[in-house]
């Protein structure tokens, strides 16, 4: 059964934050306005069939124009074929992988005590926790879009590390890295509630968010072990900043949850930030 993807359909199903990843049914047909929205927001699109297989658009002509021509890919790497990998130590191709080695990337295998793998294990656990929070049945509705973007950005960080590619600037719920930094550092000024010290009186949602916030911070520290060298040179400033801003995003969510005057939506937050810009 064909799924017709319009601009309204996209806005109803996703937050569409800049650079985030979305999954569409493999039988999708897109309107011109839907494709324009995807391209304009630089969304990473994967298509999924009923067997769970993932696809991306194949390069070249599409037949018919509104229905993408697809090729099957690996969910993380977005590649359509496996490549030969060599041991990082001996540089020899690994034809049969022992249990003590694993892929660092498509071409290199390393021992499982490599600190780069420790970082990825922490990141993997953080993704798992973000997904776990998304499954909460009574989760506050306003939080769902934020958590979807946070989960998407965590996955993009993993992909950028595995593929050794730069991480594009991305947003959470439409808020930029700079927006999140300002909101989290001066919540009383911008949100109307001072800094939050976690306490049982704040309720379940804040407690769950705080678990995610602390998990992201642990992942950031694991990343620092890998991406800050002995001369204090930062090897992946894009990943380090993204993790820092993700913990800021979760903290902003916590403050929004305890705000007595009610929830502030993203447009209200943007207007407050913009007003401060003009005042400065």
The CATH architecture name of the largest domain reads Up-down Bundle
Which value, in Å, is the CA radius of gyration? 21 Å
By secondary-structure content and strand pairing, the structural class works out as alpha/beta
Read across the widest sheet, the strand sequence of neighbours is: 2-4-5-6
Percent range of helical residues = 40-55%
* CATH secondary-structure class of the largest domain: Mainly Alpha
Low-confidence spans: none
In words, what does this structure look like?
This protein has helices at 7-13, 32-40, 115-134, 141-162, 177-185, 187-190, 204-227, 237-258, 266-279, and strands spanning 3-5, 21-25, 28-30, 44-48, 54-57, 70-72, 86-87, 101-103, 108-111. It has 280 residues and is of the alpha/beta class. The protein folds into 3 domains: 3-72, no CATH class; 82-110, no CATH class; 114-279, Up-down Bundle (Hypothetical Protein Ta1238, Chain: A). The strands form 3 sheets. The chain has a 4-stranded mixed beta sheet. A 3-stranded mixed beta sheet has the order 7-9-8, with no helix packed on it. Strand 8 and strand 9 (108-111) form a beta hairpin. The longest helix has 24 residues, at 204-227. It is globular, with a radius of gyration of 21 Å.
């Amino acid at each position: 059964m064909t799924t017709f993807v319009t601009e309204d359909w996209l806005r109803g199903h996703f937050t569409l934050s800049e650079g985030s990843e979305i999954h569409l049914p493999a039988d999708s047909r897109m309107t011109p306005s839907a494709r324009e929205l995807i391209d304009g927001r630089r969304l990473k699109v994967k298509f999924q069939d009923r067997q769970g297989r993932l696809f991306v658009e194949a390069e070249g002509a599409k037949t018919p124009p509104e229905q993408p021509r697809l090729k099957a890919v690996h969910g993380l790497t977005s590649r359509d074929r496996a490549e030969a990998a060599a041991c990082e130590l001996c540089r020899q191709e690994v034809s049969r992988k022992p249990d003590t080695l694993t892929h660092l990337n498509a071409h290199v295998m390393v021992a499982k005590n490599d600190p780069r793998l420790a970082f990825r294990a922490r990141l993997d656990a953080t993704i798992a926790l973000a997904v776990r929070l998304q499954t909460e049945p009574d989760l506050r509705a306003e939080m769902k879009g934020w958590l979807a973007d946070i989960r998407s950005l965590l996955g993009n960080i993993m992909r950028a590390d595995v593929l050794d590619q730069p991480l594009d600037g991305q947003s959470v719920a439409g808020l930029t890295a700079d927006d999140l930094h300002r909101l989290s550092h001066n919540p009383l000024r911008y949100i109307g509630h001072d800094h939050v010290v976690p306490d049982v009186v704040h309720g379940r949602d804040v407690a769950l968010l705080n678990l995610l916030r602390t998990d992201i911070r642990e992942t950031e520290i694991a990343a620092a072990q890998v991406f800050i060298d002995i001369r204090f040179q930062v090897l992946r400033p894009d990943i380090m900043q993204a993790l820092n801003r993700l913990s800021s995003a979760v903290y902003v969510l916590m403050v929004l949850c305890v705000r007595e005057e009610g929830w502030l939506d993203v447009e209200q937050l943007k207007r407050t930030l913009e007003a401060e810009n003009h005042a400065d």
